[in-house]
Structures are given as structure tokens and as C-alpha cells.
């Protein structure tokens, strides 16, 4: 009979899934900028952005207003690795005249209690940060500022709505000055909702906790939302805790079909009719009253107590939560129920007792069901934010109903698990979450501020001022001049190698050429067909691996391997026996005496084959061909990749007189006036100079901007002390610099919970391509975490923000340094030409330049700032080292033929 009577209160799983979907829609509405003003569920940003990580420490005070009791707390948090904390609390009554009086009285009372607490705990004159737990809906604009939207539960204080409650508390503190501690020492640092406090307190014990739930006098939930979904707060990075204020769910009518006549009656008799309708179906403040209204009606209809209504049953508030809890203790039989009803003068039969117990069960079960449905919506949202198919998470819970009702917790857990089978949820009880939580939030704030200082300090040396960059440009300019002068050339760190490339293509070049490309990530052999006049080039190429043992073996082995690859390629292309002209792109510093002679000055990047330095690489190649004795080739030119890049772009834009590489290595070439090149005979025309600027600073001239991380990268490299500029600017090293910083920050306990993982110890694990991925604007933080996870780095959300920041600092500095160097080159060219303004094109190649999301932009901006009189056009080269080598070979061949 009762079942039939309360049919509307019994919710099937389908009905609950429907409630869940409705709440999901409410959350979206509350988060959206345009929809928020009319949303019932306010989804309030809390400005809490981080969960505790266990390294918090310090001593804090907290006051807690809005729960069943008003309390003051002293919390001590220790960073002893055991997540331990101490809490001492004192309860104070909240008299009716205070919770229904004026605002000033309320805050004076709060401060009175705090003063008493400090006196009893001997804390007078101690300088302690104060957290304020205030469990009513507040619109926060900062962590320590919040405007009350409206009272809930049994509070109704005048003149507080729409004012900043932190400010009111501060004012009351000041007034108390005389009898109390110096007010300026008692700083209110955080305003916290009890849900947030609960989440933070549980989060201190279980780092997976990202939801806080209250089921007590009121009901509410908070959870960590992605910043990019929070329209009301600036910024897209990281997460922020959202106080859902779900008690107001249904205030716009969204739950009307589920609300019974009893719910309506209860609402009409409440302090805030029409408001907090969801809360009124759930929280302990209302369940007793609901039961009373049901029993009253059933009795009036003669279904209970022989139809006899008692005065007690007619009195509001006569049935309380504690009665329901007692009646639902099934194990204790019907005794409790009988006793309670008797006390209400109802003279129950055994059947009455069974029926009443059943009413209680239906009412409290509905509460758990509704709570579970809304919680399931939050969990699903969290899982979808993380793009996970399955999620493990923890919910921290506080509140009298959940804690004391004999069946409530079990029911709630069971229903949640049924509604979201793809979430593994752990529920943990918060120990005085609302009080400790405010202290926890304050403690986390303290930790973050301290961490921020140290991270800023670590990254400060990577921030280069415009003056510093100007200084770099000037030093580069000095070094360029040194490299060109006869007396200083031998000892110059920027070697300024003549390439004997004197002209750019004129469009008449044609024929079939072979090209080799050695010195980048891949070794390639190419066949290039150039058709004259039409400026069209066709290429066929094959990539060959050069195993590490050959890169770092003997020179003979290296060149034998190269010739082996050429043989394979000729075979593959059906070209065996054809004696083709060959251009050899060899991207290491070579001292050339003619276009087809190049003595290796020294290996760079990842190469270190023996017996090559000081040798002519063309000779070595010729000898290897001879050793193989299978085919012959006409080696016409040895070419640096920068020169190839410049030539390729020059084929299309005659104004291109500079070639830049920002790939594995960093280097530049440009057309210099012959009269400035002292070590080459002749003063007419121009010749391309391969600057080999990667060696800039090898004489110590930029040591003032090198960081300890740069030094570590240098010391761990194949060529310590060499290529210092390259090691700050090129793809081979940027990831390694990042790794060094991450290790340092981890050692300082600022990252990865202070744990240096095995993978972070591995040199080279952090490739430069990861910088590009991590710094991409389109990438959500979650994806950054996935990248780090693939690297074996288990990161929190905060970790990934820091890693992204580190990557940004390193790549930005690289681009700026490169830009400063390039500014020196274009300025020199402008002065060479003696013009007020220079129009010039730079041909660029290199994956760092092409694929990094910000590198090219920052580089260009820097050039513009440091060389304002030059209009520099940047032109991407397509396969400069292959096509360029062929073009240089063609030009050389043409000039050679003309000469003959
Ligand atoms: P190379 O300079 O060796 O001829 P690339 O110009 O292709 O060849 O540069 C390769 C280098 O670029 C790699 O060594 C790596 O350091 C870097 N790199 C690879 N992928 C990326 C990327 N997505 N973003 C930035 N740098 C990258
Ligand atoms: Mg290359």
C-alpha cells in the first residue's frame, strides 16, 4: 500500500539516467558565458586551481560557518612525506538571533569566537594565515573575495547578500583589534566552500580525489573542471574547482515532473520558497519534514494510526533526521519506530510501524538515488574531459546524513556504480573537511607561491632582454669580421668559410645530376633532373640509415658505407655505368680551396668518425669509389646545406642571398663581397660564405648568457666546449636543455613529486619534436600529459603546465638568439650595399623552423626589432640540400665548360 502511495518517489534506473542527463545539461549551461545568467545550477568558479601534493606545510587557522555547527580550527600540516596533519577544533553555538540577525552582528560573533579560540589555544599574538569556510553560494572573483548570492539552509542574516563576506570578516577583525591580535597579522587568505574543503582534505590523503560532496544539512558538490570550459574565468590552462551549487537544480522547473505534492508543500513552508528544490529532496534538513508531511496525509486518509492525527504530527519540525536514522535501523527491529511514534502521541500498531519504516526508507532512498544521479553526471563529465574510456577517481564526502544514516552510504555507492559502470570510484570520508579544508586551501596557496618563485628563478636566465639580444647581435658582428680577416681568421670562433660558390642559377642550367646529402638526420642519395628555361626540377631520392657505429667508427668505414648506398641507388634507378656529375652536400664545417675540395675542420652534431678531420672529404669519397671499383662518378662540388638552401630559393627569387638552417644543427651562409674576404684572392663580385656560426661563443664571448643547463648539455655532448651557440639554438639540443631543467626542478621538489624517473635520466629522451607538440596552442593540457606519459613521466596537471612553460622558455630563447645572429648578418649586408633600407630574402630549411609552433615567428620578430632597417622575407626551401647541390653542380659545370 505504501509503495503504491509513494509510487512517485521510487525512481527506476532509467529515470535516474534521465536525471543524470538533465544535470549534465545543467552543468554545461552553468559554465557557458551566455547561458550562465539564467542557469539554475550556478557552477561557481572557486579559484582553487591545485590539489594538495603532500609537500604543503605550516600552521593555519580556520573558521567554519554554514555547517550544522560553527567551529574554529587550528591546523598544522607537516611535509614529512607521510601526509600528516594535526587538527584542534572548538565548537560554538549559532544562536537564532545570530543566524537571523544583522550582518555586522554575525561577523562580530564569528570574530568573538575566534578570539576565544585563540585565547584557549594560546595563539594570541601569533601570525597565522586564516582560511574562511563559508558554505553558502558565493560569486568569487579571487581566492580571497566572494559575494554572497543568497542564504540557504536555515540562515537568513540581513544585509549580507551581494556583499563580499571576506571583507566583512576583515572589518570585524579590525574592530576587535584592542582585545585581540594585531589584525594585519591575521590575514584572510582563502574563502572556501565546505565542498571544496572536503575535496582538498581528502585530496591530501588521496591524490586522485577531484570531487567533493556534501550530504548533510545541505547538499552540494564540487569538482575539478578544465579551465578551457570555464567561460567566466580568463585563461585556458589547467583546471579549477567548480562549486556546482547543485542544491538549486530544478529551481527553473527542470525537476517538476519528479516533485511530489509533498515536495511542493514542504517548499511552500520553507524559509526560501521556490529555491534549492533539489536540496529539499535530498538534505537532512528536509527529509524529516517530508516524512512528517507524508505520514500526516496518510493518517488523514485513514491509512495509518486508525486515522487519528496527533498535535505533534501537525507540528512542523517534529520529525527530524535522527528519527529517520533510528527508524531505519532494521537490525534493531521495530522498537525504535514504535518509541518515536509513541512519543509523537500516535499509538502505532505493528503494521503502522512497518509502514512508517517503509516510508522513511523510500524517502531516504530517493535522496541517495538523486544524489547518485547528479554525482554520476559529474563523474561522466570528468571522464569525458580526460578523454578516457575508463576512469579511476576518488570522491571525498562529508555530511551528517551520509555519515550517520545506517544505509545511506552503501546505497549511494551502489547506485553510482550502476549508473557509471566505466568509472572506478573510491569514496572516502572526509575528516572534518570543511574546517581543515580552508587551511588546506591556504596551505596549497602558500606552497604554490613558494614554488612559483623557484620556477621563475630557474627560468629567469632564459629571458633575454632586448639589450642583451642587441649585445649578442653586436658580438656576432664582431666575430663575423674576425672570421673574414686574414690575421684573426685562424683563431676565429665563427669560421666564415669560403665556398667558391660565386653565382646563383640563371635558369639555363640543365641535365641529370646525382646529389648526396650527409649531415642531417638522414643520409640520402638523389637523382635530380633540371630542365632549362622552365625552372623545373624533378627529383628521385632514397633515404639510407647510417648506423651509430658507422657515424662514430672509422672514416674509411663511413665512406665505404656511403659508396655502398650510392651503388644501391644506382642499381635501383637503373643507372649503373652512367658517369653522372655529382654534388656532395656535406653539412659540416669544411675549409675549401675550390668548389670541389673541402677539408673537414671538425665534426659536429652526432658525427665522430676517426681519421677524417683535416682530410679532404672529396678525396675520401673518390678513394672509397676506387676501392669499390664498380662505377665512376664526376664529383663536381662539395656543398654545405645552408648553401644548397640559399641556391634552391635563389632559383626562384634572385634576391635570396642568405641561407639559414634551423634543424638538427644551426648555421647560416650569405653572399659576401669578394673584397671583404681577405683569405680568397680577388676583389670582384661576391662569394658565398658558410659562416659556421654554430661555433659562435666557443671563445667564451657569450658565456654570460649561458646557463648551468647549457653547460651540462655541453659537457654531456660529443664535442664539449664546441658549438656553444648551436647548442643553445638547434634541434639536436633543445630537448636536452629542457631535460636538464626538468631534472633540476624535480630535484628541488617542484615537479613530478620530486621523483626523478628512470626515463628522465636518459640522455636524449626528450626530443625537440616534443617541444613542438607540447607548445602547440591547440593542444589541451591533457594531451601534454599523455606525451609526458609516453616518455615515462607521470605528471599531474600542474606538472604539465610547468613542463610547457620550460619548453616555451627554451625554444623562445633559441629563436631569439637565432634572430639576433641573423640580424647581424642582414645589417652587415645592408652596410655592404651602402643603402638606407635593405630588401633581402632568406632561404630557410630545417624542421625546427618549419614545424615548431612559435620558433619561426619569434625569430622573425627578433630580426625585425634588431635590424629595423632591413625588410627581410623568409622563404621556405624545399629540399635545399638535394636540389641545391644539383643546382650548384650545374652552375659549376656550366662555368667549367665556359672556361674550357
Ligand atoms: P637536418 O637538420 O638534420 O637536415 P631537419 O631539418 O629535418 O634535418 O631537422 C631534424 C631535427 O629537427 C631533428 O634532429 C630534431 O631535433 C628536430 N625536429 C624533429 N621534429 C621536430 C619538430 N616536430 N619540431 C621541432 N623540431 C623537430
Ligand atoms: Mg637538412
From TrEMBL:
It comes from the Eukaryota. Pfam families: Hexokinase_1, Hexokinase_2. Its EC number is 2.7.1.1. GO terms for molecular function: ATP binding; D-glucose binding; fructokinase activity; glucokinase activity. Pathway: Carbohydrate degradation; glycolysis; D-glyceraldehyde 3-phosphate and glycerone phosphate from D-glucose: step 1/4; Carbohydrate metabolism; hexose metabolism. It is a peripheral membrane protein. Catalyzes the phosphorylation of hexose, such as D-glucose and D-fructose, to hexose 6-phosphate (D-glucose 6-phosphate and D-fructose 6-phosphate, respectively). Mediates the initial step of glycolysis by catalyzing phosphorylation of D-glucose to D-glucose 6-phosphate. Plays a key role in maintaining the integrity of the outer mitochondrial membrane by preventing the release of apoptogenic molecules from the intermembrane space and subsequent apoptosis. This is Hexokinase-2.
